[in-house]
Please model this.
Amino acid sequence: MKNCLIIFSLLLIGLSSCEKQVEKERPEFIGYWSGGSYCEYGFIYLDISKKSKAYFYMLDYSNSRDYSSSGIARANDEKLIIGGVKYFTIIEYPHPIDTNVERKHIYNYSDGTSKIANWKMVLDGLYGSVDCYDGTRTYYMADY
Model:
């Protein structure tokens, strides 16, 4: 029994060391990311603070559905994890975009501002919960 506990503890330490908080290892994820319209009557956003605290929110007015998830944001080469259990599969890492080629206006639902995005990332789903959102979505951020 004692050996089993030691092996389990080492396994947990090993798994958690593969995922670094975004503030330390992957600061390009930090910011307010708009996923745009969820449908005709809704929106999605992902807000990650400088202390790696993440908040995901989705609202669909058409069927009175909303979903939120929060926790510490961690990332590895394949996933952006929120709260240790829920995760997005990273399709395209955050990167600057040429605003002369790709002009995307984003609305920040947290502070009521609208700006032209200069960063982009593509994520798939939010997996790990019963009421999960799935599907590939492009997220935009204005960092100015």
About this structure: The CA atoms of residues 30 and 44 lie 16 Å apart. DSSP finds two helices and eleven strands in the chain. The longest strand covers residues 65-75.
